[in-house]
Amino acid sequence: MLRQWHRRWLLARLRDPAWRHVFDEHPEELVSLDCETTSLDVKQAELLSIGAVKLRGNRILSSESLYLLVKPQTLPQGDNIAIHGLRRRDLDEGMEPAQAVRQLLDFIGGRPLLGYYLEYDVAVLNKYVKPLLGIALPQRQIEVSARYYDYKFKQNPGAYIDLRLAELYRDLAIPAPPRHDALNDALGVAMLYQALRQRGFG
């Protein structure tokens, strides 16, 4: 009931009815999402790249994926480049942030969003989404680290639970993809989620 009320409240504040499809969930489908940014501080962070891949039931639809390079106003410096590998010349051909966010919204539709510490990615995206839609991202969000916590807590209540991404890959026996590439990270989280689903925690 509360979710339905919240949905109606957001719909009433949607700036352009053309974006109404971001409320249309697709049964059995999710989108795993990851963003690379210029900073870990949400207020300062600008988008550098966006990776997303659809899941349907127990399948990861790698053929239905999205990878976008985004040109920030402030180009990344040495330390930041070392983390994600995106050089200034790579980003020179990137999209304007508003264009990239439009493509992402069309790709996602109303599908629930899946991620690892997804709250950060959504907070950065909302800096671009709110001026466009008049509202924040309305899609339901699924945090894979929270599902993993529930899985481990049921096994051993009260024990320390390591939520580092490397530990999730190790414990769930999923080969870790190369890190800090938005699409690889989105695919990796999709694999972790499917592993948890097989254990009853999807």
TrEMBL record:
Alphabetical list of SMART domains matching this protein: EXOIII
Organism superkingdom: Bacteria
GO molecular function, one term: nucleic acid binding
GO biological process, one term: DNA metabolic process
Start and end residues of each Exonuclease domain: 29-202
UniProt cross-references to InterPro entries, sorted A to Z: Ribonucl_H (IPR013520), RNaseH-like_sf (IPR012337), RNaseH_sf (IPR036397)
Record-linked Gene3D superfamilies: Ribonuclease H-like superfamily/Ribonuclease H
GO CC terms in record: cytosol
Database matches in Pfam families: RNase_T
Entry protein name: DNA polymerase III subunit epsilon
